[in-house]
Amino acid sequence: AENRPNLDFLANYEYTNPFYNREEWGESWNVILSLNFPLFSGLSNLGRVKQAKAGLEQVKILRSQVEQRIKLEVRKAIFDMEEARERIEAQKENVELARANLRIAEERYRLGLMSEIELRDAQLSLTQAETDYFQALYDYNVASAFLDRAIGKYQ
After folding, report:
1. How far apart are CA 71 and CA 81, in angstroms?
2. Is domain 42-150 annotated with CATH 1.10.10?
3. Rounded Cα–Cα distance for residues 155 and 147 (Å)
4. Could you write out the three-class secondary structure of the chain?
5. Average pLDDT for residues 122-131, to the nearest whole number?
6. What is the pLDDT of residue 28?
7. Who has the most CB within 10 Å: 23, 67, 84, 154?
8. Residue 18: pLDDT band by 50, 70, 90 thresholds?
9. Maximum CA pair distance of the chain?
């Protein structure tokens, strides 16, 4: 509306007795037609255009930052999943070795070739290996959930 021409029309008609002591009545009328053209409003428009461009640039920067953050979250989640997967495989082997070691320790203890403390150490080693295995599984699942969230699977 600021950049468009504006047309105003005003009409007035009067029938009055301007002199209260005379019997003369008079009439008058006025018609006003006004047409306005905005010749220069460039500075206010220029300011709004600059403001809009600055806002758009801020949105672009924010979008780029969000995209970079998402890419970083995806990379980190994939890295964490791979690392946890490797630990799962290593911990599986550790659990098997600890079980074999415990079987040997139980046999040696049964034969009287090992003390009870050494047997308890073998049992503790198996428990620790199993705990480490389950921690690796947990870490893998957490990394997988972070990846799903980063790619928008869960909102």
Report:
1. 15
2. no
3. 12
4. CCCCCEEEEEEEEEEECCCCCCCCCEEEEEEEEEEECCCCCHHHHHHHHHHHHHHHHHHHHHHHHHHHHHHHHHHHHHHHHHHHHHHHHHHHHHHHHHHHHHHHHHHHHHCCCCCHHHHHHHHHHHHHHHHHHHHHHHHHHHHHHHHHHHCCCCC
5. 97
6. 79
7. 84
8. low
9. 146
The residue with tokens 């905005």 is: 38
Residues in the chain: 155
Per-domain residue ranges of the chain: 42-150
Please give the radius of gyration of the chain, using alpha carbons only, rounded to the nearest integer. 44
